[in-house]
Amino acid sequence: MGHPGRFAVMSVLLLAATLVRPAENSSLPVATANDNRTAAGKINNKKFELHLEIREATWYPEDEGGGHRDVYAFAEAGHQPQISGPLIRVPEGTEIQAFLRNVLPIEVKVYGLHSHPGDAQESVMLAAGETRELKFVAGEAGTYLYWATTSGKPIKDRKGPETTLSGAFVVDPRGTNAHDEVFVVGLWSDAAFSQQIAWINGKSWPFTSHLSFTVGENIRWRVINASFEPHAMHLHGFFFTVAGVGDGEHYQQFSDNQKRQAVTEQIDPGHTFEMTWVPERAGNWLFHCHMLVHMSVPEALHPKEAKPVAHEMEQSGSAGMGGLVIGVTVLPREMSAPTSAVAITTAPRKLQLLISENPDKIPLYQLELNDPTSSAESSKKHAPRLLGPPIVLTRGEQTEIEVKNLTTNPTAIHWHGIELESFYDGVPGWTGSGQQTTPAIAPGASFVARMTPPRAGTFIYHTHWHDDLQLMNGLYGPLIVLEPGQTFDPEHDKVFVFSTGRYAPLGLMMLVNGVPEPDPVELKTGTRYRLRFINITTNESDLRVSFTSDELPVQWKLLARDGADLPQLSRTFSAANLALTVGSTCDVEYQSDREGYAEMQVSARSFEGLIMQPFNFVAGK
Ligand SMILES: [Cu+2]
């Protein structure tokens, strides 16, 4: 973007940067970022022919003036290497003839270049310099990937230069003309696994592609995880429909009654999913991994010691973000109406969220909610917890929340899962529109967020000034939206927020409702409870919640995911064992008719052992 004159200057600068590339990389081609919009190869008489090479390349995850790594990459013969690798995209049943050439000085194993569903273990081994010819038929329609390893490790254990050896493999149903976007998600790591660079289609934010859509457009995205860790892909401002999922070999296109609504979808290494959504509101939005480690400025490219000033200051407008983040601009359908002006019929409900700071204390941040319409005591006086008070809103009610920053750092609050106007979504320098983006809330300043939540459910408010200081020190809380006429009843409505906190002097811990060792909760037999679970940990994408009574697993009924009610058919009883990825919520219903002890167990990969939330069931009535 920008005007043509400036672009010309930029090109000259890029050319200059190319010419003065450091000597050790001078012989390597530069890998280009693959937007996965153009399929590689050629189709002759319904036969698809592709010449793929595996080469060394220099990769710039940001711009070509920034940091770089020497890596391995796929290339279509005669073209620059690409990260992710050349897009293979053919209709079902196409005969594929692929020539694979290993230009590396070491042997390589290539996976996924076969008919689907196939054998996940099937690979093609190529010695240094070897060329192989593969012939197969494109199998079932779906979203797949191909990838390679030089270490012989599975996809979840690759590291170093081999991590960029991955490409998308899409098989379209016969007779369709797909209009979609394909995102290959990756992680580079050094050999010691101590540094990571998270990327999407070969780039790290803010150098990832910036997509543009129009209000009302039908959007379809295919997401492929070619990295060694799971991701929790979160869309701001809108629910999306999960339309299909795959494990790399098998792909399941969901029927209408299998489709589910989400704002965050977990994707394991080697897996894929397909999502559809319709943007209803104009403005700037984000699609990103909710794991802090994958959405922060990569230290591998910006060593902390070299830059004492926080990155958020330097990269104005990116709020400390980097890595696995995509920017989306939704344009209004009519250029004359930038935002939908909702007629104000009543005075909005006004709330105030105060954020204050207690240096050298737990919690470092203290959040307090002032609600002039409520007679309830201020939420201020409770035991030290790394957790903000619940904010309870009503569906359809216009609400203004003034966030007042009494700390010494800038901040911003994101209303996670709430469908609101972009300007109030809370990403400084990004949300809003080209004319006016959301400001960071400076120390001493306030920001009024306006929203009229269109659905009742369990949501989250949290800092989007994503340095670990704020997210690990309690700058988050539950956001609950009730149906009109309902009042929040803490006797029957129990909220459990799982987070990661610097609970000094004990260090980094997993917390339940802001403490590492939660007190027992007393419940009554014969009484129906709604339990609301929220995962706002920094990185625990594989968090699990289970519930046992007298050491036996119990059954509970799933009610909602991410704040969206499940379809009546899916509201079934199931064993109380739930996967809850970062940035997702779940509501269940539970009732016990037995007196005695019960407990909820919360586990996550990076924390040894479990956190227990004890319950005592006493006779009801
Ligand atoms: Cu991630």
What is the name of the CATH topology of the largest domain? Immunoglobulin-like
Overall 3D shape: globular
Helical proportion, percent range: under 10%
Mean pLDDT: 89
Termini distance?
Answer: 67 Å
Number of helices: 3
Q: What is the C-level CATH assignment of the largest domain? A: Mainly Beta
Pairing-aware structural class of the strands and helices? Answer: mainly beta
Residues in β-strands, percent? 35-45%
- When the domains are counted, the total is 3
Let me know the largest β-sheet: 7 strands, mixed
CATH superfamily of the largest domain: Cupredoxins -  blue copper proteins
Identify low-pLDDT runs: 1-23, 307-317
What does this structure look like?
It is a single chain. This protein has 621 residues and is mostly beta strands. It has three domains: 6-331, Cupredoxins -  blue copper proteins (Immunoglobulin-like), CATH 2.60.40.420; 349-458, Immunoglobulin-like (Sandwich); 508-618, Immunoglobulin-like (Sandwich), CATH 2.60.40. Helix content is 4%, strand content 43%. It is built from three helices and 45 strands. The strands form eight sheets. Strands 1, 2, 3, 4, 5, 7 and 10 form a seven-stranded mixed sheet that branches. The radius of gyration is 25 Å and the shape is globular. Bound molecules: copper (II) ion. Residues 231, 289, 291, 294, 324 line the site of copper (II) ion.
Question: What are the defining features of this structure?
Answer:
binds copper (II) ion; seven-stranded mixed sheet; disordered N terminus; Immunoglobulin-like; 621 residues; 4% helix; 3 domains; mainly beta
